[in-house]
Design goal:
The protein has 490 residues and is α+β, with helices and mostly antiparallel strands. 70% of the residues lie in helices and 9% in strands. The chain has a 5-stranded mixed sheet. A two-stranded antiparallel ribbon has the order 1-3.
């Protein structure tokens, strides 16, 4: 992501929070509008139905008024006026109810038209009931003629029909609105769900692109850096905080690389400083011997003695050559190429290498606790060199006709190699670091057998230990992880 377009994690989260809040508001608004619409629609439908029902009640009461008042007049009932007044008040109450429930001018006008028509109807009814001929006709028919009723109610009926038509139109409008809302509901109601899913997908993709993936790259990169690849650089991507973290780690890796290079250079100088005395020590004595032998050759006339001196000079040069070879081998980095081998096979090969020297020195090698089935993962060439050096040290330290013991033991998880001599015990306890040779009784050693053994064992992850046994001799122990056959078959 370009630096100019990079945003902080706080801002990104704020945007998503506001978006979710907006989604909640939209969902609430849709739900509120839907609830408000149904409430208003239901209330309006109920009001219109009540208007229609009240109008029908007024009309029914009016018919009752006409019939009962007419019969009361025919019977010359003195309470006719009271009956008329009671029905009149009841009908006026109905009109007042219509006015209270009215919500528009058109409804007010329609109620007023019915009320005015009712007033005219009352005047006509009063005049008709005062007409003797009409009363005689009622007597003859024993009821008010329906045709006469229609003539009396004509204006009122028209006003009622107009009002009923107005109410029907409004009910039809309400029904149309309900149908439209019902038709659009399947499309409107899923909108919040769709918006929520879209927001979830977008937020997930954005967080994955701007935070999760860059953090994953940082984790993988720091693992590579911790493994030693300090030249590796993390991608500076994602939100501002992650990009700053990657940039800081890159700068830290660069500083560590510089410090490592400086430390390596310092260690190299220190190693050279430690190596120079060792080289001088191991070269000065052979050179001095060669110089002394050369000086002797100038004054020796005996041919046999000359050959002996020459032989010693060659042996000294060979010893110096072996030491240089061992030194180069020690200083060279080791990269074991391991394979699974029986531990006994490894030790048998070393014993064959020293067999001739043992015969020459009449040294007896005895075996103890010899296990043949234990497997180890090892670079045979390197480990044979280490074991050969350790066994050679024991052989050189021992006198002619001495005894050596080698052993091979195994536990559930380890294989133990042992080399033991009776040369009086090693005069020092070797350490895994350093090239300084310790005191030795050997005439032809290089002084690097033990350091090489330590280095080879360390490269394999094995342990190497030295112990003095009652001032009688030295025991060397190599402990290796055991390779189980079930592990090899996996």
């Amino acid at each position: 992501m370009h630096a100019a377009r990079r945003h902080s994690l706080r801002r990104v989260l704020l945007v998503y929070e506001l978006a979710f809040i907006g989604l909640v508001v939209v969902t609430g608004a849709i739900g509120g509008l839907w609830s408000y619409f149904w409430q208003q629609t239901s209330a309006e439908s109920l009001r219109l139905n009540e208007l229609s029902h009240t109008m029908q009640e007024i009309r029914t009461v009016l018919f009752q008024q006409i019939q009962e008042v007419a019969l009361a007049r025919l019977r010359e009932d003195p309470a006719a006026s009271d009956i008329h007044g009671r029905y009149y008040r009841q009908i006026q109450g109905g009109f007042n109810a219509l006015r209270r429930r009215s919500s528009s001018r058109l409804e007010d006008y329609a109620v007023q038209a019915m009320q005015e028509a009712y007033g005219r109807l009352q005047d006509d009814l009063h005049a008709a009931l005062e007409d003797p001929y009409f009363l005689n006709r009622i007597v003859r028919l024993r009821a008010i003629d329906q045709q006469r009723e229609r003539s009396l109610l004509g204006g009122f009926d028209e006003a009622c029909k107009a009002f009923e038509q107005l109410v029907s139109q409004q009910l039809a409008t309400q029904t149309g609105r309900i149908e439209r809302w019902t038709r659009y509901a399947p499309y409107v109601l899923p909108v919040p769900v769709v918006l929520a899913l879209a927001l979830l997908v977008l937020s997930r993709r954005s967080l994955s692109r701007n935070f999760v993936k860059p953090m994953r790259a940082i984790i993988r990169g720091t693992e590579r850096m911790s493994a030693g690849e300090l030249n590796h650089r993390l991608p500076v991507a994602g939100v501002t905080e992650v990009a700053l973290l990657a940039d800081s780690v890159n700068r830290l890796a660069g500083d560590l690389a510089d410090s490592r290079d400086a430390l390596i250079e310092s260690e190299r100088q220190a190693a050279l400083g430690a190596l120079v005395p060792v080289v001088a020590h191991n070269i000065r004595n052979p050179l001095a011997a060669i110089r002394a032998s050369a000086q002797l050759l100038e004054h020796v006339d005996d041919r046999a003695e000359s050959r002996e001196i020459a032989h010693d000079m060659v042996a000294t040069v060979d010893r110096l050559g072996r030491w240089v070879s061992a030194l180069v081998s020690y200083l060279h980095p080791l990269k074991p190429h391991v394979r699974t081998l029986p531990a006994s096979e490894l030790l048998e090969a070393v014993l064959k290498l020293v067999a001739a020297r043992c015969r020459e020195r009449q040294v007896t090698v005895e075996r103890r606790a010899w296990v043949t089935g234990a497997l180890v993962e090892v670079d045979a060439d390197l480990m044979e060199q280490a074991l050969y050096g350790l066994l050679g040290n024991a052989l050189e330290a021992s006198g002619d006709g001495a005894r050596l013991w080698v052993g091979l033991a195994a536990t559930a998880h380890e294989v133990v190699f042992e080399i033991e001599d009776e040369a009086g015990g090693i005069p020092f306890i070797p350490e895994s670091a350093g090239l300084e040779p310790g005191p030795s009784t050997k005439r032809f050693g290089t002084g690097l057998g033990i350091p090489v053994a330590f280095k080879v064992c360390k490269a394999h992850g094995w342990d190497l230990e030295f112990a003095v046994i009652d001032a009688r001799g030295t025991r060397v122990t190599l402990t290796a992880p055991r390779k189980l056959e079930s592990d090899e078959n996996e």
